[in-house]
Design a protein that fits this description.
Mean pLDDT: 95
Distance between the termini: 23 Å
Order of helices and strands: EEEHEHEEHEHEHEHHEH
Structural class: alpha/beta
Length: 222
Amino acid sequence: MITERFHGLELALAGDSRSSICYLLMPAELPDAELQALDTVAHRFSVRIAVISGMDWNKDLTPWTAKGIRKKDSDFGGGARIFLDELKEEVFPYIESGMSANGLHRYLIGVSLSGLFAVWGLCSGLEMDGVCSISGSFWYDGFCEWLAQNSTCVSGKRVCLLLGDREKAARDARLASVESCTRAVCDTLASAGADCSFELVPGTHFSDIAPRLERAFELLFE
């Protein structure tokens, strides 16, 4: 596992594949034990894994501004377009240096707001063969409506949606809508031609991420 900083982001790289790469957008650096586990995953599926953290979570991953969850929370910043361009123009080319110039297979895994970003990005010009959203924030104001008008480019793409089976029990009304919203996202993407699957897994939004990450890699690469 190689760790470094680039453009203010924390990068952790595993595996040595030259033809397949999976990006993982995380809210914080993974513990050493989980980083080491990714080395095993990278070799198991013959994929290079790039963990990216250190972004402004509530700004860089949200496609437009929206109110915070609680009154005391800051509003969501809506900076996803700028971050998407930074990834495409600076971060991904840097990470992919030395990999295959032609026929490179790219995948993206996101968690919570970065799970929302993964699907939004796929429909906004981010070239990926497949994405997996773990507990994606599809309750985000206006997202399901936006997706219904912007999902024409997903035909043939692999999209995997994982959600905790107790996430819909959240006290906040927006958060509690996450399961119905995730099902709606899956239906929309499938209708647009994506190979889309939705799977409930045990736990809440804050359950241990490791089993969900393992399942995400299985769904994308097995």
